User: Fold this.
Amino acid sequence: MSVVVITGSAGLIGSESVRYFAKKGLQVVGIDNDMRKYFFGPEASTEWMQKQLTASVKCYQHHNLDIRDHAAIFELFRKFGHSISLVIHTAAQPSHDWAAREPFTDFTVNANGTLNMLEATRQFCPDAPFIFTSTNKVYGDSPNSLPLVEQESRWEVDAAHKFAEKGINEEMSIDRTLHSIFGASKVAADAMVQEYGRYFGMKTVCFRAGCLTGPDHSGTQLHGFLGYLMKCNATGTPYKIFGYKGKQVRDNMHSSDLIHAFNRFFESPRSAEVYNIGGSRSSNCSMLEAIKMCEQIAGRKLEWEYDATNRIGDHIWWISDISKFQAHYPGFKLEYDVKAILQEIFDQNHERWGAVTRAVHA
Assistant:
């Protein structure tokens, strides 16, 4: 049986990948040591998802390994060898703010961990496509230099600009910009994934994602804003907006849509590819717009406060242009928009969260 190795297998993208590729008949080898709990505390732990996967996915095999552990990763890859037909690397330290607290931990997880995965793939299953979940933060704060226009509920790029119609494409430079510590560690990983594709001829891809979300996200204040926002609204937990008048814009992509993109690459892999991927013009919102949608779905007002200090390196406006991926893989399209994502997050989680009784209709 063909094997897919998935890091961060109990996380949002990892768990979605586990279920999807298990249904396709692959044996799934998951790597996850719940570092999300270390990063963000008990509320962000993915242990609940690990238990769910172990109980419900028959061909799932869980390994409590740290991707920084070179010897342990190599031992696992050696065990399965050429049976590995796909590697999906989603494990990461994903937060701007947290990275600045422990830069060494951030870099070793994001950069060194990725190098361990790449080299293990090269040595033991070099023909396996290597899918890496990169980030739009590799562009640093360059998007903030775009000509932005303030509207009632959001910022928008000037209509005359080349990115206005479809969003930001891969032509934007990742150089000469403020990345944040997190962004810099992801740049290192992103560049190495490309290099293994070009230098060694491996089938590698960097998906530079915007906000990835879905009902299986263990959202927290420092990462996973849409899921965390919905959770705060449903449970009556106060929420804080940082900077830009709450009008900052993000595109939001459902984890299911991203996994379908993974599968298209798996079926027809290329070397050293880079794709901006996200909700694009089909699925995006500002913070203020997201709050309004959450209130409508949860049936209650959200208690929130505003801090005028924006996060370092944060984007004012980000919408991904996914047309390059669609050109390489015709027929790919998004199935979810923001409202549908939020509704699904609420429907599948409000009981687990212990949501408060609906009292005030937004």
Q: What stands out?
A: Confidence is low (pLDDT under 50) at residues 357-362.
